[in-house]
Amino acid sequence: MYYLFLILWATSVACQASEEIYQLLAKSHANQNLIVSPVSIETILSMVYMGAGGSTARELQSALRLPTEDKQAVTTKYGSLLNQLQGQEQVNGPTLKLANRIYVNDQFSLQQDYNLAVRGPFKAEAESISLVNGPAAAEGINQWVLSQTSGKIKDMIDPGSMSPDVKALLVNAIYFKGQWESKFDPDKTRSSTFQVSADKNVTVPMMVQMGTFRANYFRDLDAQVIELPYQNSNLSMTIFLPREVGGLSSLEEKIAGFARPLEAREVYVKLPRFKIEFRDELKETLEKLGIRELFTDNSDLSGLFGDKSGGKVSQVSHKAFLEVNEEGAEAAAATSVAVTNRAGFSMFFVADHPFAFVIRDANTIFFQGHLVSP
């Protein structure tokens, strides 16, 4: 038995596949805090797709809504995304980094065509690792993840999982840190009640400010929406606050692909200071999305290693982090996949009960989640 692990720390492109992945996770984790980077998941699975063949490739192409069966179009899509991220760093602006890497068991070698296909557009360098000492290999990979996410994603790889059966590990990591264009004054932060549910309250630090923000109430959503921009960039956090305490689940079903006009207005904003850490195994979620053959002995990943025994995916893990405070927000995420061989103001925005949020620019959702209890 040989395994191929795929690991992501990432963001999320605004597309139908990303929305479906998030919707499935939001439903299965409706009662807990959630932060994910769907584009991280999508990016790493697209790297797998570049080495897949036959019905396995068609299944991935369909589930991920990839442009066409022409893999060149896929490399163009992700090459454009990574070039966009590299080109948007500004002085005093947010930090947004995305990185890919492939760790290969030194008993195997990647197919040259596959190596070239992912090295350019995905900027994924391949590194040979010895699995004679699995824990040492895991430590090296975990250190790379830690450095790429500025210390936020720790212990992504379980040392016990890095046996000599592992063929390769595909890794994607993303890190974000941005300051609010209009910061909250820490001196105005006060302890206040956050209503988790109809019969449960918690006391949390609530940040407050009054200013001009793009915001609106949408009757069909029965929710308020506000956009909190980050300094010196086109990135922002959009928050969706249902009117009813128990309205989060139904709201999240309605906001996929949200693209409504928001009006600049004077708003009194009250928002909890919070931190979310989340980890989940994604195999079941991806199977619901339609990615099934990839996890079976019929999987065709021959493009990775140049033979029909390319293996199957046995594990997909995602880990993410978000902290929101008076200064701004900091976020990071990671995902791994294992492949085995065959075998008075005009508006008051008081976020004192569960709400959803995205961190995005005009084209890409980098992080998405919901807060149930700070």
UniProtKB/TrEMBL annotation:
Record GO terms (molecular function): serine-type endopeptidase inhibitor activity
Which domain of life does the UniProt lineage start with?
A: Eukaryota
Q: Does the keyword Signal apply?
A: yes
Q: Which UniProt keywords apply?
A: Protease inhibitor, Serine protease inhibitor, Signal
Which residue numbers delimit the Serpin domain? 19-374
Q: Does the keyword Cytoplasm apply?
A: no
Gene Ontology CC: extracellular space
Q: Identify the Pfam families for this entry.
A: Serpin (PF00079)
Provide the leader sequence positions: 1-17
* PANTHER family linked to this entry: ACCESSORY GLAND PROTEIN ACP76A-RELATED, SERINE PROTEASE INHIBITOR, SERPIN
What family, per the record? Belongs to the serpin family.
Could you tell me what this protein is called? Serine protease inhibitor 42Dd
Phylogenetic classification of the source organism: Eukaryota, Metazoa, Ecdysozoa, Arthropoda, Hexapoda
